[in-house]
């Protein structure tokens, strides 16, 4: 039986969640399925039969590093795998990335809209090099974000640029390669050895197209993700299983591919 790993969820400290969820709901014109706490996430995981969830935190300011790292240390368990965050404008980013690795975390999350950058900016190259050197997974929000104007900040071509400059970077592109830029994803990314999660995508993609994209991508490079609390984990699993993927492909997406990726951070 495959251990299911949701590689893309969000949660907040209880006090933060009470204010953050209503604000984010208003910004994105979307209703959350959970209250944003780890407790509600664990309940959702139980209902969906999910063994592990990767909580992707986002530092919207450089000085949020310590608070996010401290909270990540508190909540991690055999079921909760936190990915802290480092802001690209953090003058101490090298030291902070090293601390994340030394504390035993496997990766970080970045978001070009909330952190105000374009993925292929030259100023980010030293940052990517440091992430690569630490053998950390970099989960990068890619494509548009429904809470922001449609500036093209993390496009398929920008992803290719970073991948070509840093072939050893353990980069995970979110939302099936780039949210709502899927024509370009099919043109430029599908077939490339680039990790992508399926978070917040199956409900927007035609099932035939989603199946075609997954089956055409290299084995081992597609990861299950829900984007909880913005999508229901159990419903996302049902959508994935409803695509009719081959059993070995489905098993890889559900957790096998994620497990192998996580192992790469240990070598």
Keywords summarizing the entry:
single chain, alpha/beta, TIM Barrel, 3-stranded parallel beta sheet, globular
Query: Can you name the CATH architecture?
Result: Alpha-Beta Barrel
CATH class: Alpha Beta
Number of helices: 10
| Major sheet description | 5 strands, parallel
Q: What gap, in angstroms, lies between the N and C termini?
A: 26 Å
CATH homologous superfamily grouping: Metal-dependent hydrolases
Low-pLDDT stretches: none
Note the beta-strand portion.
5-15%
Q: Name the quaternary structure.
A: single chain
CATH fold name: TIM Barrel
Radius of gyration: 17 Å
Helix/sheet category: alpha/beta
Q: From N to C, what is the helix and strand string?
A: EHHEHEHEHEHEHEHEHH
Query: Structurally, how many domains make up the residues?
Result: 1
* Biggest sheet: strand arrangement: 4-5-6-7-8
Overall pLDDT, averaged?
97
The overall strand count is 8
**What is the 3D form?**
globular
Estimated helix fraction: 40-55%
Describe the structure.
The chain has 267 residues and is α/β, with parallel strands linked by helices. It has a single domain, classed as TIM Barrel. 42% of the residues lie in helices and 12% in strands. It has ten helices and eight strands. The strands form two sheets. It has a five-stranded parallel β-sheet with strand order 4-5-6-7-8, covered by helices on one side. The chain has a three-stranded parallel β-sheet with strand order 1-2-3. Helix 2 packs parallel to helix 9 and helix 6 packs parallel to helix 7. The longest helix is centred in the last third of the chain and has 18 residues. The radius of gyration is 17 Å and the shape is globular. The protein starts with a strand and ends with a helix. 44% of the residues are buried. The model has no long low-confidence stretch (mean pLDDT 97).
């Amino acid at each position: 039986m495959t251990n299911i790993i949701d590689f893309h969820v969000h949660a907040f400290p209880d006090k933060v969640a009470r204010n953050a969820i209503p604000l984010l709901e208003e910004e994105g014109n979307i209703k959350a399925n959970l209250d944003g706490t780890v407790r509600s996430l664990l309940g959702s995981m139980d209902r969906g039969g999910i063994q592990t969830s990767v909580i992707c935190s986002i530092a919207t300011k450089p000085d949020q590093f310590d608070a996010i790292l401290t909270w990540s240390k508190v909540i991690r368990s055999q079921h909760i795998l936190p990915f802290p965050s480092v802001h690209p404008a953090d003058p101490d980013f090298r030291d902070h990335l090293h601390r994340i690795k030394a504390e035993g975390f496997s990766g970080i999350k970045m978001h070009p809209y909330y952190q105000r950058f374009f993925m292929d900016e030259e100023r980010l190259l030293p940052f990517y090099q440091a992430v690569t050197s630490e053998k950390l997974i970099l989960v990068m929000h890619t494509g548009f974000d429904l809470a922001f104007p449609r500036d093209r900040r993390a496009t398929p071509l920008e992803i290719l640029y970073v991948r070509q400059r840093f072939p050893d970077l353990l980069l995970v592109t979110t939302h099936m390669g780039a949210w709502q830029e899927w024509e370009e994803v099919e043109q430029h990314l599908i077939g490339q050895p680039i990790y992508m999660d399926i978070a917040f995508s199956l409900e927007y993609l035609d099932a035939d197209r989603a199946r075609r994209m997954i089956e055409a991508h290299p084995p081992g490079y597609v990861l299950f993700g829900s984007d909880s609390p913005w999508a229901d984990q159990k419903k996302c699993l049902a959508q994935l299983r409803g695509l009719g993927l081959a059993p070995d492909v489905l098993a890889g997406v559900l957790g096998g591919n994620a497990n192998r990726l996580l192992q790469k951070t240990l070598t």
